[in-house]
Amino acid sequence: MSSWVAGADESHYNEHNLPIGVFSTQDDPNPRIGARIGDSILDLHRAVLSGDCQTCPSCTALREPALNRFLSMGKPVWQAVRTQIHQAVTEPALEEFAVNWMTPLSQATMHAPLVVTDFVDFNSSEAHAANLGRLRRGGASLLPPGWKNQPQGYTGRTSAIYPSGMDVTRPVGFRRDHTGTVQYGPSIALDLEAEVGFIVGGTTEPGVTVGPDSFSENVFGAVLLNDWTARDFGTEDNVATGPFNSKSFATSMSAWITPIEALDAAVAMAPAQDGQAAPHLKESDRFGYDIELAVSINGTVVSRPQFGDNYWTPPQLMSQLTSNGAPLRAGLLFGSGAVSGATREQCGSLLEMTWSGQEPLLVDGGTRLYLDDGDDVSVTATAPGPQGTRIALAEVRATVQPAQV
User: Fold this and answer.
1) What pLDDT does residue 50 have?
2) pTM, whole model, 2 decimals?
3) Which CA distances in Å does 264 have to 65, 103, 168?
4) Which of 72, 226, 262, 363 could disulfide-link to 252, CB 3.0 to 4.6 Å?
């Protein structure tokens, strides 16, 4: 079946994708929930108002300015609404109604799709972890102790998660100059980290460890992340606090959430593990997602990380969130950590691409060690769709602004 929406079948935002987001228009500045199809948005708020069902819980949730309540309703509701959206954009008999619910993407202003309730970022790429080991420990021990026992992660700051398109200000903090003296000032080693993030929709009870096989019951969808990092602040963080000032100032997130069901055709066998994983991380069906990322600076693609190469899988990361009995709740976001491969062209951070400043990167006819003010940074991604098609995970983009000092 194809879509009656013009250009949708040829788009990476085809009927197999249908990501969900929150938008507004000049005519109606109220943020509302919509589904993207091609270069159009199906206004779910307007669709609900035009129907007979306006008081049931799922319909009222779709009239809210953020997705949190809808996410809390669980997989059966997500599936039912997705089916209805698919019917609206493919059934010829519904076109005369649904065409009235469409808004051109060019007329929309995108907003954060949800209020993120928790943020946890992991380090799930073995190549990334090993590269950091080579750079920080001289290759003596590529992976930190216990890295293959359980995923490493840290709790981030939800107030600094920004939607794609929102500028990022260069952070200010503590760093050491060439003499080793600690100074306070703007970061001179601002980096990007290309990641895939996952949005939790289910809720679990405190004290319960959720196994990886419950992934699809608890995770609504995927986004792209740029977890901005001040590498020069990280030196002091590692001595004093762990990831804090170097990480907490900004994480950019896609404005559209790709439903997990849209990634069914992208499911792929994950790299083998060597049996060191903790018992709660054992999977009956070990899988990842065949997602190809592209990192661009000022329109120049500088790397193409492969998410399917990650050592720790998304289901294992979800399980690790509850390993100490902490509950899942709707609106929790967890990130994969930088996605990197074996070569410079597959790395998800400038730290790795430039090998900590030893191999400058060519961008715009000049060189980069880290990001300059005014740099426009984007992360995009595609994945296999059904019947030989491809779908896109919505880009995450931001421009670096000077520090406010």
Assistant:
1) 85
2) 0.95
3) 28, 28, 33
4) 226
